[in-house]
Protein backbone atom coordinates (compact mmCIF):
# COMPACT_ATOMS: atom_id res chain seq x y z
CA UNK A 1 0.00 0.00 0.00
CA UNK A 2 1.53 3.28 -1.05
CA UNK A 3 1.05 5.44 2.03
CA UNK A 4 2.70 8.86 2.28
CA UNK A 5 3.27 8.87 6.03
CA UNK A 6 3.83 12.60 6.63
CA UNK A 7 0.25 13.43 5.59
CA UNK A 8 -1.46 10.26 6.84
CA UNK A 9 -3.87 10.60 9.73
CA UNK A 10 -6.38 7.87 8.87
CA UNK A 11 -7.32 5.24 6.32
CA UNK A 12 -10.79 4.78 4.83
CA UNK A 13 -11.65 1.22 3.83
CA UNK A 14 -14.75 0.06 1.96
CA UNK A 15 -14.79 -3.73 2.28
CA UNK A 16 -16.62 -6.51 0.47
CA UNK A 17 -19.75 -7.04 2.56
CA UNK A 18 -19.94 -6.79 6.33
CA UNK A 19 -16.97 -7.50 8.59
CA UNK A 20 -15.86 -11.12 8.82
CA UNK A 21 -17.96 -13.40 10.97
CA UNK A 22 -14.91 -14.59 12.91
CA UNK A 23 -13.32 -12.41 15.58
CA UNK A 24 -9.62 -11.83 15.04
CA UNK A 25 -6.71 -10.06 16.72
CA UNK A 26 -5.36 -7.78 14.01
CA UNK A 27 -5.52 -6.71 10.38
CA UNK A 28 -2.89 -6.14 7.74
CA UNK A 29 -3.64 -3.86 4.75
CA UNK A 30 -1.30 -4.52 1.83
CA UNK A 31 -0.92 -4.64 -1.95
CA UNK A 32 1.55 -5.64 -4.63
CA UNK A 33 0.91 -2.48 -6.68
CA UNK A 34 3.84 -0.12 -7.22
CA UNK A 35 2.32 2.11 -9.95
CA UNK A 36 0.56 5.49 -9.61
CA UNK A 37 -2.92 4.98 -11.14
CA UNK A 38 -4.99 8.11 -11.83
CA UNK A 39 -7.72 6.58 -14.03
CA UNK A 40 -10.50 4.73 -12.14
CA UNK A 41 -11.08 2.68 -15.33
CA UNK A 42 -7.49 1.39 -15.45
CA UNK A 43 -7.67 -2.41 -16.08
CA UNK A 44 -5.07 -3.03 -13.36
CA UNK A 45 -7.78 -2.20 -10.85
CA UNK A 46 -9.66 -5.33 -11.95
CA UNK A 47 -6.95 -7.70 -10.66
CA UNK A 48 -8.48 -9.92 -7.92
CA UNK A 49 -4.98 -10.30 -6.37
CA UNK A 50 -5.35 -14.07 -5.98
CA UNK A 51 -1.63 -14.81 -6.34
CA UNK A 52 -0.82 -11.94 -3.99
CA UNK A 53 -3.33 -13.28 -1.46
CA UNK A 54 -1.62 -16.69 -1.46
CA UNK A 55 1.90 -15.27 -1.19
CA UNK A 56 1.05 -12.74 1.53
CA UNK A 57 -0.89 -15.43 3.42
CA UNK A 58 2.16 -17.69 3.30
CA UNK A 59 4.33 -14.90 4.76
CA UNK A 60 1.79 -14.37 7.54
CA UNK A 61 1.77 -18.08 8.40
CA UNK A 62 5.58 -18.22 8.33
CA UNK A 63 5.65 -15.31 10.77
CA UNK A 64 3.53 -17.21 13.28
CA UNK A 65 0.13 -15.73 12.42
CA UNK A 66 -3.10 -17.44 11.37
CA UNK A 67 -5.07 -15.96 8.46
CA UNK A 68 -8.79 -15.88 9.28
CA UNK A 69 -9.79 -14.39 5.95
CA UNK A 70 -8.98 -11.78 3.32
CA UNK A 71 -11.13 -9.03 1.73
CA UNK A 72 -10.46 -7.44 -1.64
CA UNK A 73 -10.32 -3.63 -1.45
CA UNK A 74 -10.11 -0.73 -3.90
CA UNK A 75 -8.16 2.19 -2.57
CA UNK A 76 -9.02 5.84 -3.19
CA UNK A 77 -6.39 8.34 -2.06
CA UNK A 78 -6.35 12.13 -2.10
CA UNK A 79 -3.36 13.90 -3.70
CA UNK A 80 -3.25 17.31 -2.00
CA UNK A 81 -0.64 18.74 -4.36
CA UNK A 82 -2.86 18.15 -7.43
CA UNK A 83 -6.24 18.24 -5.66
CA UNK A 84 -7.13 14.96 -7.32
CA UNK A 85 -7.43 11.28 -6.43
CA UNK A 86 -5.40 8.15 -7.19
CA UNK A 87 -6.49 4.51 -7.09
CA UNK A 88 -5.10 1.21 -5.87
CA UNK A 89 -6.37 -2.33 -5.38
CA UNK A 90 -5.34 -4.09 -2.17
CA UNK A 91 -6.35 -6.71 0.37
CA UNK A 92 -6.97 -6.68 4.11
CA UNK A 93 -5.99 -9.83 6.00
CA UNK A 94 -7.63 -10.80 9.29
CA UNK A 95 -4.87 -12.28 11.45
CA UNK A 96 -4.87 -14.21 14.74
CA UNK A 97 -2.17 -15.46 17.11
CA UNK A 98 0.38 -12.65 16.84
CA UNK A 99 2.11 -10.42 19.34
CA UNK A 100 2.54 -6.73 18.38
CA UNK A 101 6.17 -7.20 17.36
CA UNK A 102 5.26 -10.28 15.30
CA UNK A 103 2.55 -8.28 13.54
CA UNK A 104 5.10 -5.60 12.70
CA UNK A 105 7.64 -8.15 11.47
CA UNK A 106 5.08 -9.91 9.25
CA UNK A 107 3.99 -6.60 7.75
CA UNK A 108 7.60 -5.62 7.11
CA UNK A 109 8.24 -8.89 5.29
CA UNK A 110 5.23 -8.25 3.07
CA UNK A 111 6.45 -4.68 2.52
CA UNK A 112 9.91 -5.87 1.49
CA UNK A 113 8.64 -8.78 -0.62
CA UNK A 114 6.36 -6.57 -2.73
CA UNK A 115 8.53 -3.44 -2.77
CA UNK A 116 6.10 -1.25 -0.86
CA UNK A 117 6.81 2.03 0.88
CA UNK A 118 4.71 0.96 3.86
CA UNK A 119 2.11 -1.55 5.03
CA UNK A 120 -0.69 -0.65 7.45
CA UNK A 121 -1.45 -2.80 10.52
CA UNK A 122 -4.28 -2.48 13.03
CA UNK A 123 -3.93 -4.38 16.32
CA UNK A 124 -7.35 -4.70 18.00
CA UNK A 125 -7.36 -3.76 21.70
CA UNK A 126 -9.83 -3.04 24.52
CA UNK A 127 -10.91 0.61 24.56
CA UNK A 128 -9.22 1.10 27.95
CA UNK A 129 -5.83 -0.19 26.80
CA UNK A 130 -3.22 2.61 27.00
CA UNK A 131 -1.81 1.53 23.63
CA UNK A 132 -5.00 2.54 21.78
CA UNK A 133 -4.25 5.30 19.29
CA UNK A 134 -6.81 4.62 16.54
CA UNK A 135 -10.33 3.41 15.76
CA UNK A 136 -11.73 1.28 12.94
CA UNK A 137 -15.28 2.25 11.90
CA UNK A 138 -17.57 -0.04 9.95
CA UNK A 139 -20.28 2.08 8.27
CA UNK A 140 -22.79 0.52 5.81
CA UNK A 141 -24.37 2.21 2.76
CA UNK A 142 -21.36 3.95 1.20
CA UNK A 143 -20.37 3.58 -2.45
CA UNK A 144 -16.97 4.02 -4.07
CA UNK A 145 -18.17 7.02 -6.08
CA UNK A 146 -19.52 8.65 -2.93
CA UNK A 147 -16.17 8.18 -1.22
CA UNK A 148 -14.28 9.68 -4.18
CA UNK A 149 -16.65 12.63 -4.42
CA UNK A 150 -16.50 13.20 -0.68
CA UNK A 151 -12.70 13.36 -0.67
CA UNK A 152 -12.77 15.94 -3.46
CA UNK A 153 -15.49 18.05 -1.82
CA UNK A 154 -14.31 18.01 1.82
CA UNK A 155 -10.73 19.29 1.82
CA UNK A 156 -10.31 19.08 5.61
CA UNK A 157 -11.48 15.46 5.75
CA UNK A 158 -9.39 14.56 2.69
CA UNK A 159 -6.19 15.98 4.21
CA UNK A 160 -6.76 14.50 7.67
CA UNK A 161 -8.18 11.15 6.59
CA UNK A 162 -6.07 11.10 3.41
CA UNK A 163 -7.96 8.34 1.64
CA UNK A 164 -9.18 4.83 1.86
CA UNK A 165 -10.17 1.70 0.02
CA UNK A 166 -13.45 0.87 -1.67
CA UNK A 167 -15.23 -2.04 -3.29
CA UNK A 168 -18.64 -2.39 -4.90
CA UNK A 169 -20.07 -3.59 -1.59
CA UNK A 170 -21.46 -0.85 0.51
CA UNK A 171 -19.57 -1.20 3.80
CA UNK A 172 -17.13 1.51 4.75
CA UNK A 173 -14.31 0.49 7.08
CA UNK A 174 -12.43 3.50 8.29
CA UNK A 175 -9.16 3.33 10.27
CA UNK A 176 -8.61 6.77 11.78
CA UNK A 177 -6.54 8.37 14.50
CA UNK A 178 -8.32 8.33 17.85
CA UNK A 179 -8.62 12.11 17.86
CA UNK A 180 -10.24 12.00 14.38
CA UNK A 181 -13.03 9.62 15.41
CA UNK A 182 -15.75 12.30 15.35
CA UNK A 183 -14.45 13.73 12.08
CA UNK A 184 -14.50 10.26 10.48
CA UNK A 185 -18.09 9.59 11.61
CA UNK A 186 -19.23 12.98 10.33
CA UNK A 187 -17.50 12.37 7.00
CA UNK A 188 -19.09 8.92 6.65
CA UNK A 189 -22.51 10.41 7.32
CA UNK A 190 -21.82 13.27 4.92
CA UNK A 191 -21.13 10.88 2.02
CA UNK A 192 -24.27 8.80 2.67
CA UNK A 193 -23.18 6.26 5.26
CA UNK A 194 -25.66 4.88 7.78
CA UNK A 195 -23.84 5.88 10.96
CA UNK A 196 -26.70 4.62 13.13
CA UNK A 197 -25.45 1.12 12.31
CA UNK A 198 -21.76 1.98 12.48
CA UNK A 199 -19.52 -0.28 14.58
CA UNK A 200 -16.33 0.91 16.26
CA UNK A 201 -13.23 -1.13 17.09
CA UNK A 202 -10.33 0.31 19.09
CA UNK A 203 -6.70 -0.55 18.49
CA UNK A 204 -3.12 0.39 17.72
CA UNK A 205 -2.35 1.28 14.11
CA UNK A 206 1.07 1.41 12.54
CA UNK A 207 2.43 2.25 9.10
CA UNK A 208 5.26 -0.26 8.86
CA UNK A 209 8.19 1.14 6.88
CA UNK A 210 11.00 -1.14 8.05
CA UNK A 211 11.93 -3.78 10.62
CA UNK A 212 11.43 -3.14 14.32
CA UNK A 213 14.63 -2.55 16.26
CA UNK A 214 13.39 -5.34 18.54
CA UNK A 215 11.53 -8.29 17.05
CA UNK A 216 11.25 -12.08 16.96
CA UNK A 217 12.45 -13.75 13.76
CA UNK A 218 12.58 -17.52 13.30
CA UNK A 219 12.78 -18.28 17.04
CA UNK A 220 15.36 -15.50 17.57
CA UNK A 221 14.77 -12.29 19.52
CA UNK A 222 16.58 -9.67 17.42
CA UNK A 223 17.70 -6.37 18.98
CA UNK A 224 19.10 -3.83 16.51
CA UNK A 225 20.85 -0.65 17.56
CA UNK A 226 21.52 2.54 15.65
CA UNK A 227 24.60 4.46 14.58
CA UNK A 228 24.18 6.76 17.59
CA UNK A 229 25.51 6.10 21.11
CA UNK A 230 22.79 4.32 23.07
CA UNK A 231 22.01 2.18 26.09
CA UNK A 232 19.75 -0.85 25.68
CA UNK A 233 18.50 -3.03 28.52
CA UNK A 234 17.64 -6.73 28.36
CA UNK A 235 15.63 -7.42 31.52
CA UNK A 236 14.78 -11.04 32.33
CA UNK A 237 11.48 -11.04 34.24
CA UNK A 238 10.38 -14.60 34.88
CA UNK A 239 8.84 -15.90 31.67
CA UNK A 240 9.40 -12.67 29.75
CA UNK A 241 12.27 -10.58 28.44
CA UNK A 242 11.76 -6.83 28.43
CA UNK A 243 13.61 -4.60 25.96
CA UNK A 244 12.73 -0.99 26.66
CA UNK A 245 8.93 -0.78 26.72
CA UNK A 246 8.44 -4.06 24.82
CA UNK A 247 8.11 -7.44 26.57
CA UNK A 248 8.52 -10.81 24.85
CA UNK A 249 7.39 -14.20 26.15
CA UNK A 250 10.33 -16.59 26.52
CA UNK A 251 8.48 -19.46 24.82
CA UNK A 252 8.53 -17.51 21.54
CA UNK A 253 12.29 -17.67 21.02
CA UNK A 254 15.33 -19.84 21.71
CA UNK A 255 18.08 -17.29 21.01
CA UNK A 256 18.74 -13.57 21.39
CA UNK A 257 20.85 -11.60 18.90
CA UNK A 258 21.96 -8.06 19.77
CA UNK A 259 23.66 -5.82 17.17
CA UNK A 260 24.32 -2.31 18.48
CA UNK A 261 26.22 -1.16 15.37
CA UNK A 262 28.34 2.02 15.60
CA UNK A 263 28.61 4.51 18.44
CA UNK A 264 29.68 4.09 22.06
CA UNK A 265 26.98 1.64 23.13
CA UNK A 266 26.07 0.03 26.45
CA UNK A 267 24.09 -3.17 26.84
CA UNK A 268 22.52 -3.74 30.27
CA UNK A 269 21.76 -7.35 31.20
CA UNK A 270 19.39 -7.45 34.16
CA UNK A 271 17.85 -10.26 36.18
CA UNK A 272 20.14 -13.21 35.34
CA UNK A 273 21.58 -14.90 38.45
CA UNK A 274 24.33 -16.81 36.64
CA UNK A 275 26.11 -15.01 33.81
CA UNK A 276 29.00 -16.42 31.76
CA UNK A 277 30.46 -13.84 29.38
CA UNK A 278 32.75 -15.32 26.74
CA UNK A 279 34.07 -14.54 23.29
CA UNK A 280 32.89 -16.39 20.21
CA UNK A 281 34.98 -15.08 17.35
CA UNK A 282 34.53 -11.30 17.30
CA UNK A 283 31.23 -11.45 19.20
CA UNK A 284 30.31 -11.78 22.84
CA UNK A 285 28.29 -14.81 23.90
CA UNK A 286 26.22 -15.16 27.09
CA UNK A 287 24.43 -18.51 27.00
CA UNK A 288 21.74 -18.04 24.31
CA UNK A 289 22.61 -14.34 23.79
CA UNK A 290 24.91 -13.26 20.93
CA UNK A 291 26.17 -9.66 21.19
CA UNK A 292 27.92 -7.50 18.61
CA UNK A 293 28.84 -3.83 18.90
CA UNK A 294 28.41 -3.46 22.69
CA UNK A 295 31.34 -1.38 23.91
CA UNK A 296 30.26 -1.63 27.55
CA UNK A 297 28.36 -4.56 29.05
CA UNK A 298 26.64 -3.92 32.37
CA UNK A 299 25.49 -6.98 34.35
CA UNK A 300 22.88 -6.38 37.06
CA UNK A 301 22.04 -9.63 38.82
CA UNK A 302 20.09 -8.27 41.78
CA UNK A 303 20.38 -9.42 45.39
CA UNK A 304 21.20 -13.00 46.32
CA UNK A 305 24.05 -15.44 45.70
CA UNK A 306 25.02 -14.69 42.09
CA UNK A 307 27.78 -15.92 39.80
CA UNK A 308 29.59 -14.02 37.05
CA UNK A 309 32.32 -15.25 34.72
CA UNK A 310 34.08 -12.91 32.27
CA UNK A 311 36.31 -14.36 29.57
CA UNK A 312 39.02 -12.66 27.53
CA UNK A 313 36.95 -10.35 25.28
CA UNK A 314 39.85 -8.60 23.56
CA UNK A 315 38.80 -9.93 20.12
CA UNK A 316 35.34 -8.33 20.48
CA UNK A 317 34.03 -4.76 20.61
CA UNK A 318 33.44 -5.04 24.36
CA UNK A 319 36.25 -3.41 26.32
CA UNK A 320 34.49 -3.03 29.68
CA UNK A 321 32.20 -5.17 31.81
CA UNK A 322 30.52 -3.46 34.76
CA UNK A 323 29.14 -5.85 37.36
CA UNK A 324 26.49 -4.87 39.91
CA UNK A 325 25.93 -8.12 41.78
CA UNK A 326 23.79 -6.68 44.55
CA UNK A 327 23.73 -7.89 48.15
CA UNK A 328 24.59 -11.51 48.95
CA UNK A 329 27.47 -13.96 48.71
CA UNK A 330 28.49 -13.44 45.10
CA UNK A 331 31.22 -15.10 43.07
CA UNK A 332 32.97 -13.55 40.08
CA UNK A 333 35.70 -14.99 37.85
CA UNK A 334 37.77 -12.94 35.42
CA UNK A 335 39.83 -14.91 32.90
CA UNK A 336 43.00 -13.89 31.15
CA UNK A 337 44.14 -15.01 27.73
CA UNK A 338 46.40 -17.85 26.65
CA UNK A 339 49.18 -15.26 26.15
CA UNK A 340 51.25 -13.34 28.71
CA UNK A 341 48.89 -11.14 30.74
CA UNK A 342 49.17 -8.49 33.42
CA UNK A 343 45.92 -8.51 35.37
CA UNK A 344 45.43 -6.37 38.46
CA UNK A 345 42.54 -5.83 40.85
CA UNK A 346 42.43 -2.36 42.34
CA UNK A 347 40.12 0.49 43.21
CA UNK A 348 39.08 0.84 39.57
CA UNK A 349 38.30 -2.86 39.10
CA UNK A 350 40.14 -5.59 37.24
CA UNK A 351 42.55 -4.34 34.59
CA UNK A 352 43.43 -7.05 32.09
CA UNK A 353 42.50 -8.17 28.58
CA UNK A 354 38.99 -7.01 29.59
CA UNK A 355 38.36 -4.21 32.08
CA UNK A 356 35.90 -5.44 34.73
CA UNK A 357 34.45 -2.85 37.10
CA UNK A 358 32.53 -3.92 40.20
CA UNK A 359 29.82 -1.58 41.43
CA UNK A 360 29.40 -1.69 45.22
CA UNK A 361 31.39 -4.88 45.91
CA UNK A 362 31.12 -6.46 49.36
CA UNK A 363 33.92 -8.07 51.43
CA UNK A 364 31.90 -11.31 51.42
CA UNK A 365 32.01 -11.45 47.62
CA UNK A 366 34.69 -13.66 46.10
CA UNK A 367 36.69 -12.70 43.03
CA UNK A 368 38.83 -15.22 41.14
CA UNK A 369 41.36 -14.01 38.58
CA UNK A 370 42.37 -16.89 36.31
CA UNK A 371 45.45 -16.14 34.23
CA UNK A 372 45.03 -19.24 32.05
CA UNK A 373 48.01 -19.82 29.75
CA UNK A 374 51.13 -17.70 29.32
CA UNK A 375 53.51 -16.11 31.81
CA UNK A 376 51.16 -13.92 33.82
CA UNK A 377 51.43 -11.24 36.49
CA UNK A 378 48.31 -11.32 38.66
CA UNK A 379 47.90 -8.88 41.53
CA UNK A 380 45.42 -7.37 43.96
CA UNK A 381 45.80 -4.08 45.82
CA UNK A 382 42.41 -3.72 47.54
CA UNK A 383 40.36 -5.82 49.95
CA UNK A 384 36.88 -4.87 48.74
CA UNK A 385 36.36 -8.53 47.77
CA UNK A 386 37.95 -11.83 48.82
CA UNK A 387 40.45 -12.57 46.05
CA UNK A 388 41.73 -15.78 44.48
CA UNK A 389 44.64 -15.51 42.03
CA UNK A 390 45.03 -18.62 39.86
CA UNK A 391 48.12 -18.61 37.68
CA UNK A 392 47.40 -21.51 35.33
CA UNK A 393 50.06 -22.96 33.02
CA UNK A 394 53.18 -20.84 32.59
CA UNK A 395 55.65 -18.98 34.80
CA UNK A 396 53.47 -16.70 36.90
CA UNK A 397 53.84 -14.00 39.53
CA UNK A 398 50.96 -13.85 42.02
CA UNK A 399 50.70 -10.84 44.35
CA UNK A 400 47.94 -10.82 46.94
CA UNK A 401 46.40 -7.68 48.38
CA UNK A 402 45.61 -6.47 51.88
CA UNK A 403 42.75 -8.92 52.39
CA UNK A 404 42.50 -12.66 53.00
CA UNK A 405 43.61 -13.95 49.60
CA UNK A 406 43.98 -17.35 47.98
CA UNK A 407 46.89 -17.84 45.58
CA UNK A 408 47.00 -20.93 43.37
CA UNK A 409 49.93 -21.83 41.16
CA UNK A 410 49.96 -24.14 38.18
CA UNK A 411 52.39 -25.92 35.87
CA UNK A 412 55.51 -23.79 35.52
CA UNK A 413 57.46 -21.62 37.96
CA UNK A 414 55.18 -19.62 40.24
CA UNK A 415 56.31 -16.77 42.48
CA UNK A 416 53.61 -16.06 45.07
CA UNK A 417 53.37 -13.11 47.48
CA UNK A 418 50.46 -13.31 49.88
CA UNK A 419 50.73 -9.82 51.35
CA UNK A 420 48.86 -8.72 54.49
CA UNK A 421 45.89 -10.72 55.68
CA UNK A 422 45.29 -14.42 56.30
CA UNK A 423 46.33 -15.83 52.95
CA UNK A 424 46.28 -19.36 51.57
CA UNK A 425 48.95 -20.22 49.00
CA UNK A 426 48.96 -23.44 46.99
CA UNK A 427 51.94 -23.79 44.67
CA UNK A 428 51.97 -25.85 41.48
CA UNK A 429 53.86 -28.91 40.33
CA UNK A 430 57.16 -27.32 39.29
CA UNK A 431 59.87 -25.38 41.15
CA UNK A 432 57.90 -22.63 42.90
CA UNK A 433 58.47 -19.99 45.54
CA UNK A 434 56.26 -18.34 48.12
CA UNK A 435 57.30 -15.11 49.80
CA UNK A 436 56.37 -13.69 53.20
CA UNK A 437 57.44 -10.42 54.78
CA UNK A 438 57.11 -9.04 58.27
CA UNK A 439 53.59 -7.72 58.72
CA UNK A 440 51.98 -10.12 56.25
CA UNK A 441 50.07 -11.93 59.00
CA UNK A 442 49.13 -15.59 59.43
CA UNK A 443 49.30 -17.56 56.17
CA UNK A 444 48.93 -21.17 55.04
CA UNK A 445 51.33 -22.40 52.36
CA UNK A 446 51.28 -25.76 50.54
CA UNK A 447 54.17 -26.38 48.18
CA UNK A 448 52.70 -29.36 46.36
CA UNK A 449 54.88 -31.56 44.17
CA UNK A 450 58.49 -30.86 43.10
CA UNK A 451 61.01 -28.70 45.00
CA UNK A 452 59.48 -25.52 46.38
CA UNK A 453 60.86 -22.80 48.60
CA UNK A 454 59.62 -20.20 51.06
CA UNK A 455 61.28 -16.79 51.24
CA UNK A 456 60.92 -15.00 54.59
CA UNK A 457 61.97 -11.41 55.11
CA UNK A 458 61.94 -9.72 58.49
CA UNK A 459 62.41 -6.09 59.42
CA UNK A 460 65.25 -4.02 60.80
CA UNK A 461 64.17 -4.78 64.35
CA UNK A 462 64.77 -7.44 67.00
CA UNK A 463 62.58 -10.38 65.99
CA UNK A 464 62.08 -14.00 66.99
CA UNK A 465 61.66 -16.80 64.44
CA UNK A 466 60.92 -20.47 65.02
CA UNK A 467 61.13 -23.05 62.23
CA UNK A 468 59.33 -26.23 63.29
CA UNK A 469 57.59 -29.08 61.47
CA UNK A 470 54.57 -27.69 59.66
CA UNK A 471 54.87 -24.35 61.38
CA UNK A 472 56.99 -21.22 61.18
CA UNK A 473 56.48 -18.34 63.59
CA UNK A 474 57.62 -14.75 63.43
CA UNK A 475 56.90 -13.07 66.75
CA UNK A 476 53.07 -13.40 66.92
CA UNK A 477 52.65 -14.37 63.25
CA UNK A 478 52.13 -18.03 62.38
CA UNK A 479 52.76 -19.67 59.00
CA UNK A 480 51.30 -23.13 58.48
CA UNK A 481 53.38 -24.92 55.86
CA UNK A 482 53.42 -28.27 54.06
CA UNK A 483 55.40 -29.87 51.22
CA UNK A 484 58.11 -27.19 51.16
CA UNK A 485 61.71 -28.24 50.67
CA UNK A 486 63.57 -25.00 51.34
CA UNK A 487 63.27 -21.98 53.61
CA UNK A 488 65.26 -18.85 52.78
CA UNK A 489 65.11 -16.46 55.75
CA UNK A 490 66.50 -12.91 55.73
CA UNK A 491 66.30 -11.81 59.36
CA UNK A 492 66.97 -8.10 58.78
CA UNK A 493 68.63 -5.67 61.15
CA UNK A 494 68.34 -5.93 64.91
CA UNK A 495 69.24 -8.63 67.41
CA UNK A 496 67.23 -11.51 65.96
CA UNK A 497 66.72 -15.05 67.23
CA UNK A 498 66.14 -17.94 64.83
CA UNK A 499 65.22 -21.33 66.36
CA UNK A 500 65.26 -24.39 64.08
CA UNK A 501 63.71 -27.65 65.24
CA UNK A 502 65.28 -31.08 64.86
CA UNK A 503 62.83 -32.18 62.15
CA UNK A 504 61.50 -29.01 60.56
CA UNK A 505 60.24 -30.80 57.46
CA UNK A 506 62.62 -29.01 55.08
CA UNK A 507 65.75 -30.11 53.25
CA UNK A 508 67.43 -26.72 53.56
CA UNK A 509 67.03 -23.80 55.95
CA UNK A 510 69.07 -20.84 54.71
CA UNK A 511 69.40 -17.99 57.22
CA UNK A 512 70.81 -14.58 56.29
CA UNK A 513 71.70 -12.35 59.23
CA UNK A 514 72.11 -9.29 57.01
CA UNK A 515 70.25 -6.06 57.54
CA UNK A 516 67.96 -4.51 54.97
CA UNK A 517 68.81 -3.66 52.32
CA UNK A 518 71.20 -6.59 52.12
CA UNK A 519 74.92 -5.81 52.01
CA UNK A 520 77.93 -8.18 51.99
CA UNK A 521 78.40 -7.58 55.72
CA UNK A 522 76.18 -8.43 58.66
CA UNK A 523 73.87 -6.08 60.48
CA UNK A 524 76.18 -5.30 63.40
CA UNK A 525 73.68 -6.64 65.94
CA UNK A 526 74.08 -9.75 68.11
CA UNK A 527 71.95 -12.34 66.34
CA UNK A 528 71.42 -15.89 67.56
CA UNK A 529 70.66 -19.07 65.61
CA UNK A 530 69.60 -22.13 67.66
CA UNK A 531 69.53 -25.58 66.04
CA UNK A 532 68.04 -28.56 67.90
CA UNK A 533 69.40 -32.04 67.45
CA UNK A 534 67.29 -35.18 67.56
CA UNK A 535 66.69 -37.40 70.62
CA UNK A 536 68.80 -40.05 68.93
CA UNK A 537 72.49 -40.25 68.07
CA UNK A 538 73.39 -37.40 65.76
CA UNK A 539 76.51 -37.11 63.64
CA UNK A 540 76.82 -33.46 62.72
CA UNK A 541 79.36 -31.58 60.64
CA UNK A 542 79.92 -27.84 60.89
CA UNK A 543 81.88 -26.07 58.18
CA UNK A 544 82.48 -22.37 57.87
CA UNK A 545 84.69 -19.62 56.63
CA UNK A 546 84.46 -15.90 55.95
CA UNK A 547 80.84 -15.00 56.80
CA UNK A 548 79.16 -18.35 56.11
CA UNK A 549 78.61 -21.44 58.27
CA UNK A 550 76.91 -24.69 57.22
CA UNK A 551 75.62 -27.44 59.52
CA UNK A 552 74.80 -30.85 58.06
CA UNK A 553 73.72 -34.19 59.49
CA UNK A 554 70.17 -33.33 60.51
CA UNK A 555 66.99 -33.57 58.44
CA UNK A 556 67.60 -30.04 57.19
CA UNK A 557 70.91 -28.58 56.16
CA UNK A 558 71.26 -25.24 57.96
CA UNK A 559 73.20 -22.56 56.12
CA UNK A 560 74.00 -19.25 57.81
CA UNK A 561 75.26 -16.29 55.77
CA UNK A 562 76.26 -12.70 56.59
CA UNK A 563 77.45 -13.97 59.98
CA UNK A 564 79.62 -11.91 62.34
CA UNK A 565 81.71 -12.91 65.37
CA UNK A 566 79.17 -11.14 67.60
CA UNK A 567 76.48 -13.52 66.36
CA UNK A 568 76.00 -16.94 67.98
CA UNK A 569 75.23 -20.38 66.59
CA UNK A 570 73.91 -22.67 69.33
CA UNK A 571 73.75 -26.42 68.57
CA UNK A 572 71.66 -28.29 71.14
CA UNK A 573 72.48 -31.95 70.56
CA UNK A 574 69.95 -33.22 73.08
CA UNK A 575 70.26 -36.37 75.19
CA UNK A 576 71.80 -38.70 72.64
CA UNK A 577 75.44 -39.65 72.30
CA UNK A 578 76.11 -37.10 69.62
CA UNK A 579 79.18 -35.92 67.76
CA UNK A 580 79.82 -32.56 66.11
CA UNK A 581 82.74 -32.40 63.67
CA UNK A 582 84.04 -28.81 63.54
CA UNK A 583 87.30 -29.54 61.74
CA UNK A 584 86.17 -27.59 58.67
CA UNK A 585 84.93 -24.65 60.72
CA UNK A 586 87.08 -21.53 60.97
CA UNK A 587 86.74 -19.98 64.41
CA UNK A 588 85.50 -16.40 64.36
CA UNK A 589 83.05 -16.87 61.51
CA UNK A 590 80.30 -16.88 64.11
CA UNK A 591 80.24 -17.44 67.84
CA UNK A 592 79.73 -21.16 68.51
CA UNK A 593 77.97 -22.86 71.41
CA UNK A 594 77.44 -26.64 71.53
CA UNK A 595 75.09 -27.97 74.19
CA UNK A 596 75.23 -31.65 75.20
Automatic annotation (TrEMBL):
Primary location group: secreted
Annotated compartments: Secreted
Keyword Signal tagged: yes
Keywords: Secreted, Signal
Signal peptide: 1-23
Domain of life: Bacteria
InterPro entries: Hemolysn_Ca-bd (IPR001343), RTX_toxin/Mannuronan_C5-epim (IPR050557), Serralysin-like_metalloprot_C (IPR011049)
A single MF term (Gene Ontology): calcium ion binding
One cellular component term from this protein's GO annotations in UniProt: extracellular region
Keyword Flavoprotein: no
PANTHER family linked to this entry: S-LAYER PROTEIN
Protein name: Hemolysin type calcium-binding protein
Organism in which the protein naturally occurs: Solirubrobacter pauli
Organism phylogeny: Bacteria, Bacillati, Actinomycetota, Thermoleophilia, Solirubrobacterales
Amino acid sequence: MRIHKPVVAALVVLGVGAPGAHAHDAEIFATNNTAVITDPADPRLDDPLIAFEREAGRLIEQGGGRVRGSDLLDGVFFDASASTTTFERSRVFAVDGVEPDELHTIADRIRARFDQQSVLTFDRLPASDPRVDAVELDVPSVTADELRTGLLDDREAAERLFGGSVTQAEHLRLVAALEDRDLALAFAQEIGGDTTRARTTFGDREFVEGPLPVRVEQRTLVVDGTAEPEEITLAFEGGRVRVGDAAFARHRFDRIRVDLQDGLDTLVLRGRRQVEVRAQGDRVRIDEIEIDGADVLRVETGDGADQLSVDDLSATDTFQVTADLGAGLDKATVHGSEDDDQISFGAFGVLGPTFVLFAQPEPSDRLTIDGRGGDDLLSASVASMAVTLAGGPGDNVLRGGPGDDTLIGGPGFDDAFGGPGRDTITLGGDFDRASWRAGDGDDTIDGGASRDSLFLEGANAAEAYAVKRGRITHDADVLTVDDLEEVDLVAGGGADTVAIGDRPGFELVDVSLAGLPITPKGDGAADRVIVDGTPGRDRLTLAGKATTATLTGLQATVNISHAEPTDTLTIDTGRGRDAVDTSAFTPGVIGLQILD
